[in-house]
Each structure stands twice: as C-alpha cells, then as structure tokens.
Amino acid sequence: MSPVRTTRILHADPAGIEAAADVLRRGGLVAFPTETVYGLGADATNGRAVASLYEAKGRPRFNPLIVHVATIDAARRLGVFEAQAEQLAAAFWPGPLTLVLPKREGCPVSDLALAGLDSVALRVPAHLVARALIERAGRAIVAPSANRSGHVSATSADHVAQDLSGCIDAILDGGPSEIGLESTIVACRAGTARILRPGGISRQAIAAILGKLDAAPASLGESKPRAPGLLASHYAPRARVRIDAAEVKPGEAWLGFGAARPAGAAPVAAQNLSPAGDLAEAAANLFTMLRKLDRTGAPTIAVAPIPADGLGEAIRDRLSRAAADR
Length: 326
Ligand code: TXA
Ligand code: MG
Hints:
The protein is built from 9 helices and 16 strands. With 326 residues, the protein is an alpha/beta fold. The strands form 3 sheets. It has a 10-stranded mixed β-sheet, with helices on both faces. A hairpin with a 6-residue loop joins strand 2 and strand 3 (39-43). The longest helix is centred in the last third of the chain and has 17 residues, at 279-295. The protein starts with 7 loop residues before the first strand and ends with a helix. Bound molecules: threonylcarbamoyladenylate and magnesium ion. The site of threonylcarbamoyladenylate has 27 residues, from strand 5 and strand 6.
C-alpha cells in the first residue's frame, strides 16, 4: 500500500502505552511487542479498523486474524472452551499459544477479522507491554505479525518500521522479541485437538498436557486457508532460501547452526543462529538473521540442517516456507 500515514514511534512506558491504546480505541493501527513476534494491532470489534489493517499489510482477505485478550475470562466470552482448551489455557496462558475454538454466540469480533469462519483464534500474550496495551484499550485486539503479508516476521521495532512505516499510525517499541517465533496454533473442537501451526511451544509440551494429539499439521503445499500461515510460500525474504545445505555454493550467503564450519565456497555473508546449537537461541535469531542476510543482496541464502525436535519443528517449518517456490 502507498504510504499515507505518519508513523509515530512510542516508547513502551506508561505514557506511550496510553497513547497507543488511544490510537487503537479510535480505530487506528498500532504495532506492539509480544514475546513471540511484533503484532500489528487493531480494534477487533471495529470492521473499518480491521479492513485498514488488511490493507496496510497487503494481506489476502480470506486470512483470519488472531484475537488477543488480556485474560482467560475475556477469552471465554469469545470462544467455547471444552476440556482440552481449558487444560491448554491453564498450562500455557499467558504465553505463545493460540487456541482456535468454536466462536461463542454474540462474539463481538468483526466477521472480516474471522474471515467469515465459525471459529475464533484466541491468544493471551505474556508480554507485559502487550497485556497493558490490551487492558488500556479496553477491548479485544486483532494482531497479525507486523510484517508485509508473506514477508519475514518482525522481531523488533526496526523490522516493523522497515515493512510498514507510513502505512500504520504507531509502533510501540518494547525491544527485541524474546522467543522470535510465532505462537503454536492448536484447534480444539468436539473433543479433538490438532496443531495447525508449530510455534513457540513444542509439540512435545502440548502432548504432555493432553496425553494425545490428533493428526499432524497440514502438509506443505496446502493452499486452502485452514491456517493461511500454512500457505506453502510464506515468511519469505527476497533471496532464495536453500535448506538442509551441506555446503556453500559460490555467491551464496550462509545461515549456520552449531559449531561446524560449512564446506564449499566462502560465503558472501554469514550468520550463525546458535553456535552452541541451542534451538531457543536459534528461534530468537531466525527472522533477524534472515533479514540481515537478505539485505546483503545475496541471491541465495543456504541454511545449515536444523534438528526437528522441540522448537526445531517450528524453525524448520518457517524455513521450508521461506524456501518454497513463489
Ligand atoms: O505469535 C503470534 O501468533 C503472532 C503474534 C502477533 O501474536 N501473530 C501471528 O499472526 O502470527 P498471523 O496473522 O501472522 O498468523 C495467524 C495465523 C494465520 O495463519 C491464520 O490463518 C491463522 O492464524 N488463523 C487465524 N484464525 C484462524 C481460524 N479461525 N482458524 C484457523 N486458522 C486461523
Ligand atoms: Mg504472519
């Protein structure tokens, strides 16, 4: 979208949070920090605000938004919590978990935000600035990741500004995102629980609470918007991404993991997600390092193999979408 708004940068202090809440109450767009990634917030009950949010991101209309609330009680007023949803909320809220639940009758969230579905995606973030903002705004806040649609998610106020400056009203700067990967999305309905998107809470941690999980997440390449973060090409930098790379080819940038040096050519630029091979550190660095390497102009970013256990599942998920054909 062409830049038409003046984007204010606000500090995440009480005055900044109050100013940001005021913008939200008036139907404006505010990017704010969460522990996963920065979100682009709008009043969930204001259809016009939601429409302008889709426009600012360049997001396809069919892609529904996560509704952020400050407490589990507020969430219960919007979605129907069965036993499994209650167990997961008790274990992981506030935190990097999104629950997709049947929409409660009278749920005031705009139909546009739900893309006409009969379900609602709910999250209670742990980040104190996010919770204070939602509380001060006094309403549910929809917030997709604060990046241009399809691009790498934003884990700092700087990233948000690179993608959305001039298209939104304010950025609440709360420093870098601690986790660096989006929330895990779990759909709970009619006694089943399925992971729709791997994320900041591992499959193992969720299975440990529920005892069992229904079928695996949708396979790569699915184009139906069951959770459109699952579109094959998503989270994509401008450069091509080559995953599970055994060596560096001439002209490539290198995104490493672990202590081993890559074989092959000398990379034109290099970053290491975690020299110690720590998956949480790698998650926190993922989007920042992809953006850095992308800015060098290298045509391809080769990425070291990442193990698939724990948070590795979500890291591999984001990387394979970044690598998918566009
Ligand atoms: O960590 C996060 O989840 C971040 C922070 C800002 O909270 N938000 C985020 O939002 O990642 P977004 O819009 O980038 O991704 C939300 C995903 C999309 O893939 C969307 O399709 C899916 O959630 N989603 C939302 N509502 C849904 C629903 N009712 N059923 C299935 N999927 C849904
Ligand atoms: Mg996103």
